[in-house]
Structure to design on (1042 residues):
């Protein structure tokens, strides 16, 4: 009974966060984009804990493993990531880890996202003189 | 635990593996484990543990939860909550009334719960309080119980610790009998301190009981004879902002004279504690330096007044310990000093029982505010009644609204909703309403608690909010209440036949009107009873305040007598008559001088001294007296009060026979009786009693007069047989009958004479009428609470009535329309609609009358002098309720009666 109430309490918040997300939309949110890029950077080491650590060290912002994992899970469902279970290691108390890799549509989504930004940057006259775009 | 093999918190792990989806378990545990090791390595074990909890809680996300965790059909619940929420907002006024009523009821209930908890929670803050007992000594004289009290001999506890292995520790506690003046010699500030606040105790006191010291060391604070421990409040009073440790206080008067060194400052004592004191000195001080010298003389086994607390070992059997204590008392009985025909036995009273279950033997000096179990029970009952009324209102209002919901239910049913699903839907709404009310109730309670505290004169804090048990019960209550109040409307609403709700006739009757009418009758019954109760309490109080007392206490100034006499003879043994006589003679001479001097001023009417003044009963002497020469068995109990020369004149007592005291009388050999005492002795008339002799101790004393009965105590108590003994030196309280002259001048004069005759004493005074009426404080508080409850009950009952009227007015819209078309007047329709509620009220009134009569008389029996339960006790509440109810009903019915019949008839 008590456990259930704790869970319900936390869920109420989470559901609110997720309400706006349409599963079929493949456009990326900022957090999603960064996570996707980190998966690409980390290659063989791309599993939830490592991604969260990398996120913290690269952005300087803290994030919980749960939040990262939840985003990874969502990206998988959208088909932007694939995953497989890796080998057990001693550091993890003999447990296996789930390694994520970017799928073809994941790469497409990243490129689309980058193109959109570049195009927007190019249309911004104040910044064009710095020639940010080689 | 070393950092290397640190493991994450077990409980967090259990929580995680309980809710996480099975497929994710391994990888998530692995990730969290790695994270944990990382934080242990870079930060600390503690930080790692906190972080682990944070990570686990952060996994409570929809994607990660196992199927079994999610409540079945969560999406449906979501829809129910949404619909319920919208429904609340659609009927704002109705929701406001429901939630307002319910949260008010719950708030009151919460406040009362907190108060009850405070009362029940007395003396439970000591470590191992369940093993601490107070010794109660019961006396049996010639086979007849002759009294009991929490008083033991000096040695009993000490010896018990030595010879009874079950006794782990003992503490003696002795509140001083006499008041004293305490001086800070550096500032020359002096104050009168009441005897009850000046206690003596064993040095183990601060270890057995949990009275934390703000300054000083509990193990040594009481180990020297001149030490004194004071409360923080006293430290402020005598030393201000300065550091009191090691400073000197001089105690003059009371049970022990002398200067003391402050060796400890106690945090102010908690209020839920029966040991109330402000000064604490080692118990040795009492019998080595003070008037407890009889401990020396009789080896500590003379019958005296030491409250004794024992800490008993865990496995011990209390009855066996009691038997061993009885044996100890028997073995140490003093031959020739203690009466042979008295047998003393002991009872060990758990310390947590003292406040509420002490009954007769809880003397005021031991439990400054004795709790009243029956008052608390009454409050709990009223609290639940009010909560119940709140729930009844919810039932009434939500069924009344059902007309509006009929279409919704019809549509739901015809597209395939099951009855069960509809019940769940309405229960969800009920939970929603109860939950909102519950949260509001906490806010209301936070506001009301200080108000209640103010009324009952105690500081109350909302301590329950911090306990997990409270929250557990809070949710249990909310959910239970939601079920209780939601079930009926849920079943009624879900059992409609869809065709009747969607068709054009709409002749729906929601459930049985009988039940709701019954509930309304019940609500009004409670309201009438409460209003009547309030009226009765107030009437009784004003009756008591207005009644002639048989004496005149108005414009009576009472000055607290001197606590000690500079250079006077001292008493070192409270049982040594020679010492006491010498001290008394000196005191008498000083007092006569004072009276002579003080009366020498035009503003002073009469002056007299006495040991007590009217209104004071806790220190009164109860004595057994008989007529001189009568056989042993004919002694009766009397109140004995020592009074000075002009007592009768000053207090305006009416003399029925004989004379008052006069100057050529010797002290202590002459008495005045009241009528009640004349009756108790068995004299035929007041005239007969005059000049008779009464046995007092070994010698005869003479009755010189009889006064008319007067109310020494509050009018709650009957006249007691009283013996006023002449004692020209009695100066504990000095009463002045003031003339019309200005008060300032009289006070200045009295004060200057007082300081001249009694140097180094503090000057304190009070007015007797205010002091006397303070005896009714508890009754006034009781009345105020009753008033608040009855207003609340009426308010809630009217809400319920309003809902019912609205409901039936809607049902009869068409009927009203047709009647109007046929020429019925507005008045006629209003009367027609209101009639059935009048009938409900009549039932409530009929049932209420015998109840009021029964309970009213039962309550009045607490008072010896009481007002009559007249016809007004029935008329007044009935009128009040009738007017309020008619207003409520009339408002709505008039509205319906005035409606245009075209509107109600054209719709179909």
């Amino acid at each position: 009974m008590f456990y259930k109430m704790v869970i319900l309490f936390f869920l109420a918040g989470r559901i609110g966060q997720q309400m706006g997300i349409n599963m079929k939309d493949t456009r990326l949110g900022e957090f999603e984009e960064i996570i996707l890029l980190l998966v690409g950077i980390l290659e063989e080491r791309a599993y939830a804990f490592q991604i969260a650590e990398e996120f913290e060290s690269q952005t300087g912002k803290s994030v919980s493993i749960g939040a990262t994992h939840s985003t990874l899970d969502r990206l998988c469902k959208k088909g932007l990531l694939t995953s497989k279970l890796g080998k057990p290691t001693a550091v993890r108390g003999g447990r296996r880890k789930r390694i994520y890799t970017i799928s073809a549509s994941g790469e497409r989504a990243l490129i689309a996202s980058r193109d959109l930004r570049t195009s927007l940057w190019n249309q911004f006259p104040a910044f064009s003189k710095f020639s940010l775009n080689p | 635990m070393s950092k290397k093999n640190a493991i994450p918190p077990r409980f967090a792990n259990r929580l995680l593996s309980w809710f996480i989806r099975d497929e994710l378990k391994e990888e998530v545990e692995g990730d969290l484990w790695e994270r944990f090791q990382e934080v242990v390595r870079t930060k600390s074990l503690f930080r790692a543990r906190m972080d682990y909890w944070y990570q686990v809680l952060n996994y409570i996300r929809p994607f990660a939860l196992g199927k079994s965790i999610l409540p079945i059909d969560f999406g449906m619940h979501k829809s129910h909550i949404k619909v319920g929420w919208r429904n609340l907002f659609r009927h704002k006024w109705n929701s406001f009334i429901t939630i307002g009523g319910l949260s008010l009821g719950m708030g009151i209930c919460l406040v009362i719960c907190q108060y009850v908890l405070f009362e029940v929670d007395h003396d439970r803050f000591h470590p191992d309080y369940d093993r601490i007992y107070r010794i109660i000594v019961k006396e049996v004289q010639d086979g007849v119980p002759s009294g009991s009290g929490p008083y033991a001999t000096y040695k009993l506890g000490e010896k018990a610790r030595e010879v009874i292995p079950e006794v782990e520790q003992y503490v003696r506690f002795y509140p001083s009998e006499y008041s004293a003046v305490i001086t800070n010699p550096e500032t020359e500030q002096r104050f009168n301190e009441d005897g009850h606040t000046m206690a003596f105790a064993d040095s183990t006191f601060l270890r057995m009981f949990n009275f934390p010291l703000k300054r000083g060391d509990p193990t040594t604070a009481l180990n020297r004879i001149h030490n004194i421990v004071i409360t923080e409040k006293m430290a402020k009073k005598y030393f201000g902002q300065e550091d009191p440790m090691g400073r000197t206080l001089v105690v003059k008067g009371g049970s022990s004279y002398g200067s003391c060194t402050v060796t400890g400052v106690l945090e102010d004592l908690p209020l839920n504690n029966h040991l109330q004191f402000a000064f604490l000195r080692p118990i040795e001080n009492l019998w080595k330096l003070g008037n407890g010298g009889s401990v020396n003389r009789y080896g500590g086994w003379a019958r005296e007044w030491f409250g004794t607390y024992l800490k008993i070992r865990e496995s011990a059997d209390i009855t066996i310990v009691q038997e061993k204590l009885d044996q100890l008392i028997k073995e140490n009985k003093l031959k020739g000093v203690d009466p042979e025909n008295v047998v003393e036995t002991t009872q060990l009273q758990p310390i947590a029982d003292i406040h509420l279950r002490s009954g007769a033997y809880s003397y005021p000096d031991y439990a400054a505010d004795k709790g009243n179990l029956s008052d608390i029970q009454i409050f709990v009952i009223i609290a639940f009644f009010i909560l119940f009324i709140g729930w009844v209102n919810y039932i009434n209002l939500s069924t009344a609204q059902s007309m509006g919901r009929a279409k919704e239910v019809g549509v739901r049913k015809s597209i395939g909703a099951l009855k069960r699903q509809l019940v769940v839907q309405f229960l969800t709404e009920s939970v929603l309403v109860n939950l909102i009310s519950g949260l509001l109730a906490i806010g209301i309670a936070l506001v009301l608690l200080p108000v209640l505290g103010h009324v009952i004169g105690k500081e109350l804090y909302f301590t329950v909010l911090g306990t997990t048990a409270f929250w557990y019960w809070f949710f249990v209550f909310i959910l239970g209440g939601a079920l209780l109040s939601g079930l009926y409307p849920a079943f009624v609403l879900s059992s409609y036949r869809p065709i009747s709700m969607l068709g054009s006739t709409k002749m729906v009757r929601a459930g049985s009107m009988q039940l709701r009418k019954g509930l309304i009758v019940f609500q009004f019954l409670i309201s009438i009873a409460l209003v009547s109760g309030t009226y009765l309490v107030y009437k009784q109080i004003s009756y008591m305040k207005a009644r002639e007392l048989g004496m005149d206490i108005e414009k009576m100034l009472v000055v607290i007598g001197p606590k000690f006499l500079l250079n006077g003879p001292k008493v070192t043994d409270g049982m040594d008559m020679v010492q006491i006589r010498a001290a008394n003679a000196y005191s008498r001479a000083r007092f006569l001088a004072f009276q002579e001097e003080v009366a020498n001023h035009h503003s002073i009417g009469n002056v007299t001294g006495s040991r007590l003044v009217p209104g004071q009963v806790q220190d009164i002497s109860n004595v057994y007296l008989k007529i001189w020469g009568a056989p042993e068995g004919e002694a009766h109990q009397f109140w004995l009060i020592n009074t000075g020369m002009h007592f009768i004149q000053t207090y305006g007592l009416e003399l029925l026979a004989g004379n008052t005291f006069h100057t050529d009388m010797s002290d202590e050999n002459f008495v005045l009786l009241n009528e009640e005492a004349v009756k108790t002795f068995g004299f035929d008339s007041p005239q007969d009693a005059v000049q008779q002799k009464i046995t007092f101790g070994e010698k005869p004393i003479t009755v010189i007069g009889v006064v008319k009965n007067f109310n020494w105590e509050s009018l709650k108590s009957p006249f007691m047989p009283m013996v006023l003994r002449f004692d020209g030196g009695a100066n504990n309280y000095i009463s002045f009958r003031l003339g019309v002259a200005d008060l300032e001048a009289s006070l200045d004069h009295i004060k200057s004479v007082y300081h001249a005759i009694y140097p180094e004493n503090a000057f304190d005074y009070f007015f007797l009428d205010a002091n006397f009426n303070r005896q009714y404080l508890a009754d006034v508080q009781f009345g105020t609470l009753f008033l608040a409850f009855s207003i609340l009950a009426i308010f809630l009952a009217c809400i319920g009535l309003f809902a019912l009227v609205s409901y039936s007015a809607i049902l009869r819209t068409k009927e009203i329309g047709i009647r109007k078309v046929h020429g019925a007047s507005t008045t006629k329709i209003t009367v027609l609609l209101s009639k059935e509620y009048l009938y409900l009220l009549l039932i409530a009134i009929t049932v209420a009358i015998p109840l009021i009569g029964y309970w009213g008389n039962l309550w009045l029996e607490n008072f010896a002098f009481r007002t009559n339960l007249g016809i007004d006790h029935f008329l007044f509440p009935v009128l009040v309720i009738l007017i309020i109810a008619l207003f409520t009903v009339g408002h709505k019915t008039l509205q319906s009666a005035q409606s245009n019949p075209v509107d109600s008839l054209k719709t179909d």
